[in-house]
Write a structure and sequence with these properties.
Pfam family, one: Methyltransf_23
Organism: Aspergillus wentii DTO 134E9
Radius of gyration: 20 Å
CATH superfamily: Vaccinia Virus protein VP39
GO molecular function, one term: methyltransferase activity
Distance between the termini: 21 Å
Region (Disordered): 1-51, 64-94
Helix content: 25-40%
Order of helices and strands: EEEEEHEHEEEEHEHHEEHHE
InterPro entries: SAM-dependent_MTases_sf
Structural class: alpha/beta
Length: 389
């Protein structure tokens, strides 16, 4: 939270991770979950231009990341998680406008996409942004949204916001989170920004999508937003402290920042996920490539420190346990893992294709052979692997 601050929820490495920071005025420091800087100095203003069971039937590189023992007890289950021995074998939106809201016309360079190895990529920041933006990727992003809703028991956020007037979604992707927030808060103005114009044309009347690079200087006036949200930006951000400082400056006192990031890593408590397995080779490869690319994937465990350094107060972390396959005996974890298993089949290529071919120098054929081995292992219920969010 900003100057009158509230902490952000933090997330552990094994599952999707959310960090929330909020800001409250100094006199409100007793309210929960506020994160705000110790001073009121502001940077100079800058203006700113469900899946089916059938889908589950569908669907290995080179470095090392130390295991993270930080496991907040409020979310992560007590290990070891029981595995199931038998298993070892759309929201309705209202008030939509017909016209796609834009603040300026889209130039031809923005939609002049790049095509590589059968995937489509944005032309903006082409040398740094490694993720595709084609229809397959849009489907994956919408599935990630569904996974977060399952992990968060249907909630879109954890911050204690009540009546936000202006909301910003950084790297909005398909815009699904922003659209649902616009429906939830019809009196608020919701802004979603992204490098790619892949958001739908039919949207609630209180939402705007901007083609904008959130790593550039923000053009909005300071103290503008009641809530700023981001999700899965790891690998897209070169300077997290700068991004968080810009968010701090543009939040109203007492407002909240919520960051959700997943640990791009895998664990197993019983040793069934081997260090020399295709999955671990893939994870080491994409993490190594992301560091070489200057936009690290493994940031979930650093966000709390970045928030505190930026001046946010009452910063909280929350960690969710996310199995790669439906191996747990627990019915809830098993159901969530069914969707995660479908998701990781798509994520292998989405995260890895450009990293392996462009950054690590692998040939497309060698890369695809590895990915086939990774996908095969990520369908093996006898491997009791998981990640953290």
């Amino acid at each position: 939270m900003r100057e009158s601050s509230v902490p952000l929820p933090s997330f552990a490495p094994d599952v999707p991770r959310e960090t929330r920071a909020s800001s409250l005025p100094a006199q409100n420091t007793d309210s929960a979950l506020a994160a705000i800087p110790e001073t009121t100095a502001q940077p100079s203003p800058q203006p700113a231009v469900p899946l089916t069971e059938e889908a589950i039937q569908a669907a290995q590189p080179d470095t090392q990341i130390p295991a993270d023992n930080h496991q907040p007890a409020d979310i992560l289950p007590q290990h070891p998680v029981e595995f199931d021995e038998d298993g070892n074998s759309t929201t309705d939106h209202s008030d939509y406008s017909e016209e796609f809201l834009e603040t300026y016309s889209i130039t031809s360079s923005i939609i002049d996409y790049q095509y590589e190895n059968g995937r489509r990529y944005p032309s903006s920041r082409a040398n740094h942004y490694m993720m595709p933006n084609d229809e397959d990727e849009q489907d994956r992003l919408d599935l990630v949204h569904h996974l977060y809703l399952m992990l968060m028991k249907g909630e879109l956020y954890n911050a204690p916001i009540e009546n936000p007037q202006k909301i910003l979604d950084l790297g909005t992707g398909t815009g699904i989170w922003a659209i649902e927030m616009a429906d939830k808060f019809p009196g608020a103005r919701v802004i979603g920004n992204d490098l790619s114009p892949i958001q739908p044309g039919w949207t609630p009347s209180n939402i705007d999508f901007l083609i904008d690079d959130f790593e550039s200087d923000w053009l909005d006036q300071p103290d503008t937003y009641d809530f700023i949200h981001s999700r899965n930006l790891a690998g897209c951000v070169a300077d997290w402290p700068r991004l968080i400082s810009q968010a701090y400056a543009h939040l109203k006192p007492g407002a909240y920042l919520e960051l959700k990031e997943s640990a791009v890593w895998g664990w197993s408590d019983d040793g069934t996920l081997k260090d020399d397995s295709p999955v671990m080779d893939w994870l080491r490869g994409i993490n190594d490539a992301s560091r070489k690319n200057g936009r690290e994937l493994q940031v979930y465990h650093k966000l709390k420190g970045f928030l505190i350094d930026a001046g946010f107060v009452d910063v909280h972390e929350r960690t969710y346990f996310l199995p790669f396959t439906p191996w747990p005996a627990d019915p809830y974890l098993k159901e969530v893992a069914k969707y995660q298993m479908v998701h990781v089949q798509a994520a292998v290529e989405a995260y890895g294709l450009r990293f392996f071919t462009q950054v690590l120098g692998w040939s497309p054929d060698r890369t695809k052979i590895l990915f086939a081995l990774v996908k095969d292992q990520l369908r093996d219920f006898s491997v009791h692997s998981y990640t953290k969010v």
